[in-house]
Amino acid sequence: MIKVKNLVKNYGGKTPAVNDVTFSIGKGEIVGLLGPNGAGKTTIMKMITGYLNPSQGEVLVDGINTLDDPISVKSKIGYLPERSPLYNDMTVYEYLSFVADVRGLVGNEKYQKITDMIVLVNLEKVVARKIKELSNGYKKRVGLASAMIHDPEILILDEPTAGLDPNQIIMFRKILRRLSEQKTIILSTHVLSEIEAICEKVIIINSGKIVADNTLQELMENHSKEKFLDFIVEAEKLADVEKVVCNIDGAWNVEFEKKETKNQFRFKALLSSSEEFKTKLSEAVNGKGWKLVYAEEKKPNLEEIFLKLTANTQEIEHVQ
Amino acid sequence: MYNKIYPIYKREMSSYFYSSIAYIFLILFVFMTNIMFFYFFGGIFKEETASMRRYFTILPYVFTVFIPGLAMGSWAKEKSEGTIEMLFTYPVAQWKIVAGKFLAVLTLVGIALACSLFIPLLTQIFVGDFDWGQLFTQYLGALLMACAYIAVTFFMSSITSELIDSFLLSAATLLLLTLAGYVTSAYVMVFPDWLGWLKIFLNEISLSTHFGNFSKGVIHSTDVIYYLGIALVFFYCNIKALESKKWS
């Protein structure tokens, strides 16, 4: 359904925002595009929708190159940008009617689709209200309704749950699950639980490059041999412990998790060399006169795999 | 073709009326042009002929401010609010989007111009015969001139992201193109013989001098071609400026 070949997007900086990205997505697949901020997820999505042109490479949607026939490609895609930009001076109904018009819907079909979308995303209460008066959650729903009004084969959703409250997120996931039965969906998000809950396949992007392109099951299996160490250190000051344990060799990444008691601090280390890390941790803790209260090796979950794959990013975003 | 341009046109029109810009534009335009027509430079009442020529003489200068005021947000607002991202992911050719927006502004200018029709109508009823042929030419010329002003403003809006930048750039460009003809008037500046080419050049590129024949009630093909040419060139530049953003 979607083929991305050697895609490059250069905004004029030292390194391209998207660097030689290749992947394909089959019909009916739900794919999560995952990566830290600035990894290139949104740029890839914008190139698939035809909003941006690639500097190199090509995007084929149903065999059609986005540069050769952008209108055909755009008519197959429904797109919800991250900020869900809408015409605030219009009412919800007027906006959906406008989108239906530009999507070429006419007559009864147009009114039926508008009604279907209003029901699907629960917009009945606000249908006559101006968009500028709506909450973020309702704006996202209007954006989703407008992206789906023409019943597209492909849905591209850029951080669809960003800025929503927990109730709205649950509702949004229900809608996406319902849609996932009929459509090819590309979803970018920071929320790993969302990927686990909805997506069949995950593409992890880091610094403009693909670092993983697997089904969730494959990804977990591929990283099943890798481990992380969950450990608690008893010491006087957290800052001192952090300074020491974060610089021990043998781990991709060491993160402070939480304070167990006043003097007990829990850490998580993604291990690159298990034995080396454990030995050096033990030496460091004993050498400082602290106490290693607890330590256990575990298999990584999606969050830890994500952290490992994107570990070279200077600033790792907080992942929910 | 129509079914894709019309939704854009309709949205633009509703946007102008919802946001009150259309009302403010129409009220100010009608008020300003009529004040200038009736009272400035001795006023219409000192003239001995029933003519709208004075009204149309001041139009290029009025357009210089009013059209950028009306059309400055055409692209700048879409960019600053991010709605351009939605607009350009709809299956509509870019020229159709530009055309829909263009026609909406032209319609508003047309309505504003039509608001001055009460002058010849009242003159016809209470004073005497009006030269309707000349009047038709004047309105036709005004609309053609408006096309050029709108196209220039659209282009400036497409290369800026802020409304104020769009307005200032458009108004400054239009003012220069309008005054280019004015400075060639003998009582403003005397050009020495060796600068004769400059005088001709300024006259030819001026947005106001090409309106001179229309305001007298004369249609010259060169004037029609000039306005349509300017409009098409800037219309094309507008599309190219928007397309270039896809590559940047």
Largest interchain contact: A-B, 32 and 25 residues
Instruction: Compute the CA-based radius of gyration of chain A.
Output: 23 Å
- How many distinct beta strands of chain A? 14
Q: What characteristic shape of chain A results from the CA principal axes?
A: elongated
The end-to-end distance of chain A, rounded to whole angstroms, is 31 Å
**Strand percent estimate of chain B:** under 5%
- Biggest β-sheet description of chain B: none
Q: Roughly how many Å is the radius of gyration of chain B? A: 19 Å
Main pleated-sheet profile of chain A? 6 strands, mixed
Q: What is the assembly state of the chains in this entry?
A: heterodimer
CATH topology-level name of the largest domain in chain A: Rossmann fold
Q: How many angstroms does the end-to-end distance of chain B come to? A: 29 Å
Helix content of chain A: 25-40%
Describe this structure in words.
The complex is a heterodimer of chains A (320) and B (248). With 320 residues, chain A is an alpha/beta fold. Chain A folds into two domains: 2-216, P-loop containing nucleotide triphosphate hydrolases (Rossmann fold); 228-298, Alpha-Beta Plaits (2-Layer Sandwich), CATH 3.30.70. Helix content of chain A is 35%, strand content 28%. Chain A has helices at 41-49, 70-76, 92-102, 107-120, 136-148, 166-179, 192-198, 216-222, 238-245, 274-287, 302-309, and strands spanning 2-9, 18-25, 30-34, 56-61, 64-65, 77-80, 154-158, 184-189, 201-206, 209-215, 228-234, 251-259, 264-271, 291-298. Chain A has a six-stranded mixed β-sheet, with helices on both faces. Chain A has a four-stranded antiparallel β-sheet with strand order 2-1-4-5, covered by helices on one side. In chain A, strand 4 and strand 5 form a beta hairpin. In chain A, helix 4 (107-120) runs antiparallel to helix 5. The two termini of chain A are 31 Å apart. Mean pLDDT of chain A is 87; it is low at 314-320. Chain B is mostly helical. Chain B has one domain. Helix content of chain B is 76%, strand content 0%. Chain B is built from twelve helices and no strands. The longest helix of chain B has 27 residues, at 132-158. The two termini of chain B are 29 Å apart. The interface between A and B is medium-sized, with 32 and 25 residues.
